[in-house]
Design a protein that fits this description.
single chain; mainly alpha; two-stranded parallel sheet; 4 helices; 6% strand; Glycosyl transferase family 1 domain-containing protein
Length: 97
């Protein structure tokens, strides 16, 4: 649901769930992407800097970064809730037919 997950992709969710930091543009109007870091929209210099900052964070404390990413994923990306929403939508579609 865009109102819940914004611009988040499954790859983003799985990476964060595995403890891999994600950097994304700050274009999510709902502020629900919950990446490790946001970069200014379409600012490649800022994106590059956020990637370098993330790399530095990983070099300094890989396990801490992984824990933070995993924690964000567990808090914001509930696959069971997402599945319930999909089932609800499909039931509505079937009921209308």
């Amino acid at each position: 649901s865009p109102s819940i997950y914004g611009d988040v992709t499954r790859v983003h969710q799985e990476a964060m769930g595995c403890g891999c930091p994600v950097v994304c543009w700050d274009t999510d109007p709902f502020q629900e992407s919950h990446p490790y870091k946001y970069a200014k929209a379409f600012d490649t210099a800022d994106m590059g800097q956020k990637i370098m900052d993330t790399y530095s964070d990983v070099l300094d404390d890989r396990e801490g970064v992984a824990r933070q990413c995993r924690s964000l994923a567990e808090r914001y990306f509930d696959i069971n809730f997402e599945a319930q929403q999909i089932v609800s939508i499909l039931r509505d579609v079937v009921a209308e037919q």
